[in-house]
TrEMBL record:
SUPFAM superfamilies: Amidase signature (AS) enzymes
Gene: gatA
Enzyme class, first EC level, given as a word: ligase
Protein name in the entry: Glutamyl-tRNA(Gln) amidotransferase subunit A
Organism, scientific name: Phycisphaera mikurensis (strain NBRC 102666 / KCTC 22515 / FYK2301M01)
A GO-annotated cellular component: glutamyl-tRNA(Gln) amidotransferase complex
Annotated active site: 83 (charge relay system), 158 (charge relay system), 182 (acyl-ester intermediate)
Family (UniProt): Belongs to the amidase family. GatA subfamily.
């Protein structure tokens, strides 16, 4: 029930960001914490392949600076894992690709710079699907990451390495990026919290572009209050990214007590189109039903809503995202960025073709071809233009149920739903190799997540517990998704915290290494 197992906000779990931050502020050694963490990474990472690169010496030096009182802030001493698609001046950014192997950025992404300015310690960068294209990390040129709940299974993707690093206890929080579900889906499959903020909430400066109108940076955390805290540090206007919103960042996001204050009269929408018992694994249906029960017990009002255009989400997304990917990835031409073929055949065209042919993996090539086709003259109107129009219809569905006019902060009481409750994924973690030969079934992983990206609104996956073991599967985590209006993260996170409190402590996967 709502209050029995609730974690009081003034007693954050010791392994949470807030718990660790408070322990360090009370005198615990940040250096010892980082040293122990590096030991765990050394033991478990060879098997799990969560990190692609670890910054051991720099992390220890930064932790020592925290212990000497030279580095402070709301995240002082907290070890955070980055994703291989974020530029960082302390390491390389390969985007999970051969194309950018060894690429050094001369600057750090704004989100990482802000975390460091708040005292956080970037311990390494995590494995991901190549150029964030995938749902399992199996398209990484650096091998797949393994799910710590069952290493025969994928952790999801594209931010799979980040989710694994956190779930396996190899960091206190991790960053991901979400273009169509790449934070929320791996969070659900690994049993952690994953937040995709509103488009424009966190700067994309220093994020290597995948699909620029959809990409958004966000945190993976163990608790909802941790996600709110990380959001508060990273969010806000950035002169280096013209798509960031010049809106104030609510101070309550950094206040765990405010996040845990239940919302009276919360209106939770249940989108009919997302709750199809035939499409969803029984454990996923049960998870949503449990969440409905928790909300009801907390006094929320549950209302069925319709998002009729959501069923066009997958085709719309895969036209628009591949179009944008084909354009963004044109810069890897063997001249300016990335791999250049050692073949010295005949001329520029051959050099470009060889360089791209050698360094891009199959999924990247598939997306470039699909996107180039969608943008080609003759198909541009039928595919790209039409997908843009459907995108607007999908967004309008959300604005109608939230009672919002569009891209503006929600009114205090818009009369519509505060949040929508639905699954994050149709099932639990699938086996390595199970979907690699069937791109369409891989793409269907995103069926419940892409629409929030198309609409530019916020979504979060919150673990509800473990699905019972099956004949060939151990107990595996399940999550549910809450979707909120643009710039409505505060209410979204408070609703998520209500679920988390009703759930009680989330089990951890078996230790590895
Ligand atoms: N799985 C989705 C895709 O392959 C989402 C990727 C992402 O969010 N980066 O496109």
């Amino acid at each position: 029930m709502m209050t029995q197992d609730a974690t009081p906000p003034d007693a954050a779990p010791a392994d949470s960001v807030i718990g660790l931050r408070d322990a360090i502020a009370a005198g615990a050694s940040a250096r010892e914490g980082v040293a122990a963490l590096l030991g765990r990474i050394g033991a478990a990472n060879p098997e799990l392949n969560a990190y692609r690169e670890v910054y051991a010496e720099a992390a220890l030096a930064r932790a020592e600076a925290v212990d000497r009182g030279e580095r402070s802030g709301p995240l002082a001493g907290v070890p955070i894992a980055s994703k291989d698609v974020l530029c960082y001046d302390g390491g390389t950014t390969a985007c999970g690709s051969r194309m950018l192997r060894g690429h050094r950025s001369p600057f750090s992404a704004t989100c990482l710079a802000r975390l460091e300015a708040a005292g956080a310690i970037v311990v390494g960068t995590c494995n991901m699907d190549e150029f964030a294209l995938g749902s399992s990390t199996e398209t990484s040129a650096y091998g797949p990451s393994l799910n710590p709940w069952d290493t025969a299974r994928v952790p999801g993707g594209s931010s799979g390495g980040s989710a694994v690093a956190l779930a396996a206890g190899l960091c206190s929080a991790a960053l991901g990026t979400d273009t169509g579900g790449s934070i929320r889906q791996p969070a659900a499959l690994c049993g952690v919290v994953g937040l995709k903020p509103t488009y424009g909430r966190i700067s994309r400066h220093g994020l290597v572009a995948c699909a620029s109108s959809l990409d958004q940076v966000g945190p993976f955390t163990r608790t909802v209050a941790d996600a709110a805290l990380l959001l508060s540090v990273m969010a806000g206007d950035d002169p280096l990214d013209a798509t960031t919103a010049p809106l104030p960042v609510e101070p309550e996001l950094a206040d765990a007590e405010a996040i845990h204050r239940p919302i009276r009269g919360l209106r939770v929408g249940l989108p009919r189109q997302y709750l199809d018992a035939e499409a969803n694994h029984p454990a996923v249906q049960r998870a949503v039903e449990r969440a409905m029960g928790w909300f009801r017990d907390a006094g929320a009002e549950l209302v069925e809503v319709d998002l009729p255009h959501s069923r066009f989400g997958i085709p719309t997304y895969y036209v628009l995202m591949t179009a944008e990917v084909s354009s963004n990835l044109a810069r890897y031409d063997g001249v300016h960025f990335g791999h250049r073929s050692p073949e010295r055949t005949s001329g520029l065209d051959a050099m470009t073709r060889d360089s791209r042919g050698e360094a891009f993996g199959d999924e990247v090539k598939r997306r470039i071809m699909l996107g180039t086709y969608a943008l080609s003259s003759g198909y541009h109107d039928a595919l790209y233009e039409r997908a843009l129009r459907v995108r607007r219809l999908i967004a309008n569905d959300f604005h109608r149920v939230f009672g919002t006019g569009g891209f503006e902060p929600p009114a205090a009481s818009g009369g519509g739903c505060d949040v929508l409750l639905c699954p994050t994924t149709t099932g639990t973690a699938f086996k390595l190799g199970e979907k690699t030969d069937d791109p369409l079934s891989m793409y269907l992983n995103d069926i419940y997540t892409v629409n929030a990206n198309l609409a530019g609104i916020a979504g979060i996956s919150v673990p509800t517990g473990l699905a019972p073991a099956e004949e060939d599967a151990p107990e595996l985590p399940v999550g549910v998704q809450l979707i909120g209006p643009a710039f409505g993260e505060l209410r979204l996170l408070r609703a998520a915290a209500m679920l988390e409190a009703a759930r009680g402590p989330m089990p951890r996967p078996p230790a590895r290494g």
